[in-house]
Amino acid sequence: MSTYCQELKHKITYGDPFFILIPEGKSGGAIVSFEAMNRVSESDRLTEPGLGTVAVYAADSTYSMGDTYSWFDITKQAYLFSLSEHTFDTLFPTSKALFES
């Protein structure tokens, strides 16, 4: 299975950076593309994780499915920054819905 951006609903091209968003207190995360992450302004990027924040990690996969990453073997890499709950709710409503069920 190919890796899709869970926010913008498009395939993530193999070789392009992608990210995992993990709300504080959750064990899983949402996969988002570079294009989705570019909507976050520098001023909305928090340097420290905290209560009610969503951590942003670089992601990687060692397998490709042609021109996209494989859904299998996706790994969380380095912590990059956090988002406030408000920023996450505003810019990533589809990803937020994944955690509400």
Short description:
The protein has about 100 residues and is an alpha+beta fold. The chain contains 3 helices and 6 strands.
How do the helices and strands line up, and which of them pair or pack?
Layout: E1 18-23, E2 30-33, H1 34-37, E3 53-61, E4 64-65, E5 68-69, E6 74-84, H2 85-91, H3 93-98
Antiparallel strand pairs: 1-2, 1-3, 3-6, 4-5
Structure report:
By secondary structure, the protein is of the alpha+beta class. 17% of the residues lie in helices and 34% in strands. It has three helices and six strands, in the order E-E-H-E-E-E-E-H-H. The strands form two sheets. The protein has a four-stranded antiparallel beta sheet with strand order 2-1-3-6. A two-stranded antiparallel sheet has the order 4-5. The longest helix has 7 residues, at 85-91. The two termini are 23 Å apart.
Question: What is the ordering of alpha helices and beta strands?
Answer: EEHEEEEHH
Largest sheet, strands/sense/barrel: 4 strands, antiparallel
The CA-CA distance between the termini, in Å, is: 23 Å
Broad shape: globular
What is the C-alpha radius of gyration, as a whole number of Å?
A: 13 Å
Total strand count, please? 6
The fraction of residues assigned to DSSP E strands is: 25-35%
Considering DSSP H and I runs of 4 or more, what fraction of the residues is helical? Answer: 10-25%
Observed structural traits:
single chain, 101 residues, alpha+beta, four-stranded antiparallel beta sheet, two-stranded antiparallel sheet, 3 helices, 34% strand
